[in-house]
Amino acid sequence: MPWSRVLTFTDPLLCQAAILSADVEILPTTKEDFEVEITQVGADRVWLQGLHASAPTVCTVACKPERQSIGFLTESNSSPLQHCGLEVLPGDIIVNRSDVIHRRSGHDLDYGSISLPTDELDNAVEAIIGCEFVEKSDRRIVHPHPQLMARLLKLHRAIGQLAHDTPDILQMPEVLRALENELIHVMVRCLADGVGVEPTTGDCRHDAILAQFEEFLEANPDRPLYLTEICAAIGVAERTLRASCEEHLGMGPIRFLTLRRMHLAHGSLLRADPLKSTVTRIVTDHGFWELGRFSVAYRALFGESPSETLRRPADRIAIHLNRPSSLVVTEPGYA
Prior knowledge:
This is HTH araC/xylS-type domain-containing protein. It comes from Bradyrhizobium iriomotense. This protein is 43% helix and 23% strand. The chain is α+β, with helices and mostly antiparallel strands. Helix 2 (118-129) packs across helix 4 (173-193).
């Protein structure tokens, strides 16, 4: 069944749970107020998504293998975007894959994505270009023909605007089917005719190092970690790990570790019952043992003390359905 929704989030954990076609971890990098508006439309085959994010973030993304998706900047004045250490420019298309990747952006990011089931993409490619798609498996960014990209952006904007203003129109089967078919056609042409940017050997090496780094952090969530220990565990030199993290994350490994754990602790404090939990227990569960230093860093990032976060009422986490759709709504992002 078709569906659409427009959502506004002020909590990164709720926001990341709503993202379509991928498992995402969102880490705001400043203490500015986090606010993201997401517009989502689902047809028979295509899922379309557009978002505006106000604050700088670094994201870890694992795309779901059953769907093929592409992403792109939707506005020419959008914040710069780095994808796996590569700069994404207006007019570029990101080819998303099922491996874990990292993205980082500044203020006021305008980003869109389109996805459809992988087998549907294969069928569409064969129908549109007359042969099987010779997958250029290592392409991360594609430079499509400007006219094709302009058509893709125009369609993406038009469908998003309908979801905002007149979602009833998308309930008309002939309208949605026509838009979906045109979107698939232009998407396939952009991918088939575009010039791809392939990673270098160094890029692939850095990808592998970041994957090992993430795995080690996941395996050791509740104890202090030190750079020499991390490097020994994943078998790389400190200089190499630093270079990989700076390229993909825009920061060194210890700063990323601290930022990630700060946000995890923040989420736990927000959701904890102050009558049953303590700041000390929650903080130490996330690997912080120097509580005074933690409190100073926490206040600098979130603008309040850990105890103030713990005591705030449970309804403080905001998710708003700005424009409830008249369509039948499913919840693919929350599955």
